[in-house]
TrEMBL record:
Keyword ATP-binding among UniProt keywords: yes
Class of enzymatic activity (EC top level): transferase
PROSITE patterns given in the database record: PFKB_KINASES_2
Species classification: Bacteria, Bacillati, Bacillota, Tissierellia, Tissierellales
Catalytic activity as recorded in UniProt: D-tagatofuranose 6-phosphate + ATP = D-tagatofuranose 1,6-bisphosphate + ADP + H(+); beta-D-fructose 1-phosphate + ATP = beta-D-fructose 1,6-bisphosphate + ADP + H(+)
SUPFAM superfamilies listed in its UniProt record: Ribokinase-like
Stated role: Catalyzes the ATP-dependent phosphorylation of fructose-l-phosphate to fructose-l,6-bisphosphate.
PANTHER family documented for this protein: 1-PHOSPHOFRUCTOKINASE, 1-PHOSPHOFRUCTOKINASE-RELATED
Name of protein: Tagatose-6-phosphate kinase
Gene3D superfamilies: 3.40.1190.20
GO annotation, cellular component aspect: cytosol
Length: 302
């Protein structure tokens, strides 16, 4: 079983406008609402692949009801801990560019945290747990560490800053920064593939089992203790950058949990991330399969 943890889920309220003008009253030409949060994005991708993931985390209020109902419509299981506060709404403006306004999130009290920790008994040793996304400010900064201490299964961690270094001693199955995030982790500017590989190897040396560094339109690089692989970019129109990285995580975890080789799991991760980038929402199984046939992965410099 694959569990996805979303401590700060949201309604992603997407508004499409012709042009953004600062200080003006703007009217959208279309709008959509989706259940959001990095763990939920991973679950949606896993469901599209045919898996049966379970969402855990915190949900509350009328916004939480919406998220829960939408997941039910998608046939995605959830075992969220109920809270008194309202789950957040994030606004995504889509025009020639993309602008996101992400809310802070609700207050979560100590009793609600303890209820969540009690629920972790559902997670068994042979499961996977995907940990990703920001923490509400009311949660202790070491909340994820306490989660890891209370589970015995394999896990991934997706944190976009140097705090991820504190988690490597727990041996995460996957760390997936993009190029800019990798630079922030090590407080440096990274430009070349050689530098990317060097710093990815540092993550491996510090405890990560696998690292995928996404390079946007330039493809991605996979590193483990034995090899370095690079996936070539796939031509297509960028429609949606939200969830592409989460889709890569979902694809890789799906591959490992279904006994694919690391190389094939990486290829699937690339196809999943690209399918989402080329789709209005999380990539469909048909789109993933179409793109998987185009994925080219080669051994890169060590």
């Amino acid at each position: 079983m694959i569990y996805t943890l979303t401590t700060n889920p949201s309604i992603d309220y997407i508004m499409r406008i012709d042009e953004f003008t600062h200080g003006a009253t703007l009217r959208s030409k279309a709008s959509e609402m989706y259940p959001g949060g990095k763990g939920i994005m991973v679950s949606k991708l896993l469901k599209n692949l045919g898996d049966d993931p379970v969402n855990i985390g915190f949900l509350g209020g009328f916004t939480g009801d919406f998220i829960k109902n939408e997941l039910e419509k998608l046939g995605i299981k959830e075992s969220f801990t109920e809270i008194k506060g309202d789950s957040r709404i994030n606004v995504k403006l889509k025009y020639q560019d993309e602008t996101e306004i992400n809310a802070e999130g609700p207050h979560i009290d100590e009793d609600e945290v303890e209820n969540f920790f009690a629920s972790l008994k559902e997670v068994k040793e042979d499961d996977f747990l995907v940990i990703s996304g920001s923490l509400p400010k009311s949660l202790d900064k070491d909340f994820y560490k306490e989660v890891i201490r209370r589970i015995s299964c394999k896990f991934t961690i997706d944190i976009a800053n140097k705090e991820v270094l504190d988690y490597l001693k727990y041996k995460p199955v996957l760390v997936k920064p993009n190029k800019e995030e990798l630079g922030r982790i090590f407080e440096t500017k990274i430009e070349t593939d050689e530098e990317i590989i060097s710093y990815a190897k540092k993550l491996i040396e510090l405890g990560a089992e696998n690292v995928i560094v996404s390079l946007g339109g330039e493809g991605s690089i996979f590193v483990d203790k034995d090899r370095v692989l690079k996936a070539s970019p796939i031509e297509g129109k960028l429609v949606n950058s939200v969830g592409a990285g989460d889709s890569m995580v979902g694809g890789f975890v799906y591959g490992l949990s279904h006994d694919l080789s690391k190389k094939d799991a990486y290829k699937l991760a690339v196809a999943c991330g690209t399918a989402t980038a080329f789709s209005p929402d999380i990539g469909s199984k048909e789109k993933i399969d179409e793109i998987l046939e185009k994925v080219e992965v080669k051994e890169s410099g060590n």
